[in-house]
């Protein structure tokens, strides 16, 4: 790791080694600037935070829910990854959530959050997130903080420019990071035929306004560039989407060098209202594909995975006026639209300035045909014709920009490790603060909406180094909270995060806190194996499967003695939590289970599969300390040899001897029940 030192006011005094290597630079002010202003981030014991902060977990495939301004962690929501804490992805009911066309994929790399919007403002209904590796989108219900739905994206490889959302949640988008041969073609081609065979793809995923359910409305086939990030237009630019693309060189090796050859890459402007018209008029062609769509049903407490076989595809060659390219220096990363919808800020990682484009000028350039030729048949708008202006000398390695709704923009600078505040109107730099270290995304609550909630800004840093007590080679990830209510930005707090945070969105606590689901009503439980009372508890054999309808209530499991299971049997423990009080989950675990515990919420049924791999006695127990007699909340399962004639038998509270298939009782000595 190379370091360079600079004063925060003299950004240009960077060594060229630092710039070339794109490594982080350590601000010289590191210690002195980190005094903080603890009072402003202090939330007294028993008091609530002002904002819920929904934070991507990066390569842990989860989402973290934090309070702002305290930085306290409230919940980890498993999305693309199995969770041993809740049993998500381990229980029989939730395994289908992780089904894909590749089979069961229990992990992904989650980068971006999009909160649902109505009229350009947060509406507090759903959070959406992208799976970057095996391309997927997820929807999280903000009344349960659980993953409700996962949709796989075909014709994609690396779902990075995703899931950005339109101002009325009409669509979220999913644009491929890696161009690849299309799914219905033989992809077994030489890699050096990239230019010929590799294509890009942007999916428009429609959101059902009532249920939130996702469906791929159409895809747009694009040149074989790499899509990085995106934002929807809003207000006057509603109906448009803006995507940053790099690798306009279409390089397929040593991208570090070969995809940075050209002076400019592109921002792709997509007129999606026009695309909708083309779909309506029959311009879209059907393509055979295969992708999974997984939906969790809160009534049956079970997910169903459906495999779909078709997408509608628009070819830009058939759809004039749908796509335009705007030249953008150099390897743009974030593309962000200001609250008014007029300005589009593109952050070129290797650029010395930040170009700000004007929606009005883009429209005029299109009307005037102010083009600089074409790229793969798509008109390229003249840079100057689209440009509002450039922020000059902002810092090094601009990545992402957020807004405060007061005419200011805040851009994260990866290389120079700082946040730069500038004025959208005159493009003047107003303030800069160091970050510790190498900031990636930044987030202002409501920052990507038409009405930012302002007040705070959170930096999500890529490198932690000396900020916390060290923990061996792997250090915690780190976020920092800044006060942006005044003219100058002020650092308030460092707080660690789980996974690698990329983007996050925060919304006022008042939008969510009073509509949280507290229990599932037991009378509405439509699970196929529910036991709505202890009287319905039972054990049944179907071939080598044994199904246990078990109930859990403080402080016993029913049944708690089970005999007659044979070696090799697959035992399905279907456990219904009979509690109807908030905050009383029960857990379930059994020795030797090849998965995890399951945690069952009040009124819910969940299933743990367990295979009897040896004979003997196996204790099972509740894993969540639920009452003073939690330790007593347990039971025993007996496994007998295959040839044994111990009859299937279960009980709670009675202590009768086991029965053989012939009806006589066994005495319990080893080998009992055999003749
Ligand atoms: Cu949104 Cu982190 Cu994937 Cu920038 S990316 S940092
Ligand atoms: Cu139920 Cu511990």
Automatic annotation (TrEMBL):
<dbReference type="GO" id="GO:0050304">
    <property type="term" value="F:nitrous-oxide reductase activity"/>
</dbReference>
<protein>
    <submittedName>
        <fullName>Sec-dependent nitrous-oxide reductase</fullName>
        <ecNumber>1.7.2.4</ecNumber>
    </submittedName>
</protein>
<dbReference type="Pfam" id="PF18764">
    <property type="entry name" value="nos_propeller"/>
</dbReference>
<dbReference type="InterPro" id="IPR026468">
    <property type="entry name" value="Nitrous_oxide_Rdtase_Sec-dep"/>
</dbReference>
<keyword id="KW-0186">Copper</keyword>
<dbReference type="InterPro" id="IPR015943">
    <property type="entry name" value="WD40/YVTN_repeat-like_dom_sf"/>
</dbReference>
<feature type="region of interest" description="Disordered">
    <location>
        <begin position="654"/>
        <end position="675"/>
    </location>
</feature>
<dbReference type="InterPro" id="IPR008972">
    <property type="entry name" value="Cupredoxin"/>
</dbReference>
<dbReference type="InterPro" id="IPR001505">
    <property type="entry name" value="Copper_CuA"/>
</dbReference>
<dbReference type="InterPro" id="IPR034205">
    <property type="entry name" value="N2OR_C"/>
</dbReference>
<dbReference type="GO" id="GO:0005507">
    <property type="term" value="F:copper ion binding"/>
</dbReference>
<dbReference type="GO" id="GO:0030313">
    <property type="term" value="C:cell envelope"/>
</dbReference>
<keyword id="KW-0560">Oxidoreductase</keyword>
<dbReference type="InterPro" id="IPR011045">
    <property type="entry name" value="N2O_reductase_N"/>
</dbReference>
<dbReference type="InterPro" id="IPR041114">
    <property type="entry name" value="Nos_propeller"/>
</dbReference>
<dbReference type="InterPro" id="IPR051403">
    <property type="entry name" value="NosZ/Cyto_c_oxidase_sub2"/>
</dbReference>
<keyword id="KW-0479">Metal-binding</keyword>
């Amino acid at each position: 790791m190379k370091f360079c030192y600079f004063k925060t006011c003299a950004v240009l005094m960077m060594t060229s080694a630092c710039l070339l290597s794109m490594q982080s630079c350590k601000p010289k002010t590191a210690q002195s600037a980190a005094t903080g202003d603890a009072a402003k981030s202090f939330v007294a014991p028993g008091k609530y935070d002002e904002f819920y902060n929904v934070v991507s977990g990066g390569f842990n495939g989860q989402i973290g829910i934090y309070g702002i301004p305290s930085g306290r962690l409230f919940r980890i929501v498993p999305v693309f990854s199995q969770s041993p804490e809740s049993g998500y992805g381990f229980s029989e009911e939730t395994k289908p959530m992780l089904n894909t066309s590749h089979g069961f994929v229990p992990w992904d790399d989650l980068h971006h959050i999009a909160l649902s919007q109505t009229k350009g403002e947060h509406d507090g209904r759903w959070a959406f997130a992208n799976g970057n590796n095996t391309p997927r989108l997820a929807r999280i219900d903000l009344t349960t903080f659980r993953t409700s739905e996962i949709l796989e994206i075909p014709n994609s490889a690396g779902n990075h420019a995703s899931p950005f959302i339109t101002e009325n949640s009409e669509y979220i988008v999913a644009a491929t990071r890696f161009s690849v041969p299309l799914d219905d073609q033989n992809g077994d081609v030489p890699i050096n035929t990239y230019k010929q065979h590799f294509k890009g793809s942007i999916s428009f995923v429609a959101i059902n306004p009532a249920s939130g359910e996702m469906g791929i409305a159409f895809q747009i086939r694009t040149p074989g560039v790499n899509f990085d990030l995106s934002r929807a237009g809003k207000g006057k630019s509603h109906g448009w989407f803006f995507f940053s693309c790099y690798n306009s060189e279409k390089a397929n090796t040593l991208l570090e060098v070969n995809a940075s050859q050209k002076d400019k890459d592109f921002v792709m402007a997509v007129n999606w209202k026009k695309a909708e018209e083309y779909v309506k008029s029959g311009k879209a062609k059907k393509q055979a594909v295969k992708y999974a769509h997984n939906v969790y049903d809160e009534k049956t407490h079970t997910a169903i995975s459906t495999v779909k076989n078709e997408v509608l595809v628009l070819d830009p060659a058939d759809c004039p006026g749908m796509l335009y390219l705007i030249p953008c220096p150099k390897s743009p990363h974030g593309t962000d639209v200001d609250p008014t919808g007029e300005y589009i800020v593109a952050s070129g990682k290797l650029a010395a300035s930040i170009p700000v484009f004007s929606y009005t000028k883009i429209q005029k350039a299109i009307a005037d045909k102010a083009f600089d030729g074409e790229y793969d048949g798509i008109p390229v708008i003249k840079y100057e014709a689209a440009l509002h202006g450039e922020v000059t000398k902002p810092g090094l390695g601009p990545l992402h920009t957020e807004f405060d709704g007061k005419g200011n923009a805040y851009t994260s600078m990866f290389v120079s490790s700082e946040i730069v505040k500038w004025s959208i109107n005159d493009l003047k730099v107003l303030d800069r603060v160091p970050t510790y270290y190498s900031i990636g995304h930044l987030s202002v609550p409501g920052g990507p909406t038409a009405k930012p909630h302002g007040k705070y800004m959170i930096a999500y840093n890529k490198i932690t180094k000396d900020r916390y007590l060290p923990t061996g080679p792997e250090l915690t990830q780190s976020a920092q909270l800044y006060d942006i209510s005044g003219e100058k930005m002020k650092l308030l707090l460092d707080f660690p995060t789980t996974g690698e945070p990329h983007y996050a969105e925060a919304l006022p606590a008042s939008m969510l806190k009073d509509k949280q689901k507290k229990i599932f009503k037991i009378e509405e439980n439509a699970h196929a194996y529910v036991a709505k009372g202890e009287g319905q508890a039972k054990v049944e054999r179907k071939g080598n499967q044994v199904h246990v309808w078990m109930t859990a209530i403080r402080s016993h499991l029913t049944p708690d003695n089970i005999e007659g299971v044979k070696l090799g049997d697959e035992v399905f423990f279907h456990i219904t939590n009979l509690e109807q009080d908030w905050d009383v989950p029960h857990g379930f675990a059994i020795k030797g289970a090849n998965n995890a515990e399951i945690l069952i919420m009040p009124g819910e049924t969940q299933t743990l599969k367990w295979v009897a791999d040896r004979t003997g006695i196996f204790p099972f127990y509740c894993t969540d300390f639920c009452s003073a007699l939690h330790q007593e909340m347990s039971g025993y399962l007996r496994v007998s040899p295959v040839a044994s004639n111990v009859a299937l038998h279960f009980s709670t509270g009675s202590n009768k001897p086991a029965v053989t298939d012939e009806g006589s009782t066994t005495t319990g000595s080893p080998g009992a029940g055999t003749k």
